[in-house]
Amino acid sequence: MPLSKAYDEYTIEDIYNLPAGKWTITVWDLRNDNNDEYSFSDKVKAGIYDDLYIDFSTIQL
To answer: Which superkingdom, per the lineage (predicted)?
Structure first.
């Protein structure tokens, strides 16, 4: 199923994937069928609110 179809059918806007052992974060933007990768030192804008950001640098692993 294309990501844009998942957005249309289930109203899921963003998916965050933090694979174990891989120090990157993949964010899928389902509205635009796009994805971006970030590091754990990044602050990432969440899609559910205009002013919501997730600061991954504050998370201790």
So the answer is: Bacteria
Q: What is the largest CA-CA distance in the chain?
A: 35
Neighbour-count burial for 41-54, b at 16+ CB within 10 Å, e otherwise: eeebeebeeeeeeb
Q: How many domains does the chain contain in total?
A: 1
* pLDDT over 90 percentage in the chain: 8
Question: Do the Cβ atoms of 48 and 13 come closer than 8 Å?
Answer: yes
The whole model's pTM is what?
0.57
| Residue ranges making up the domain that contains 36 | 3-58
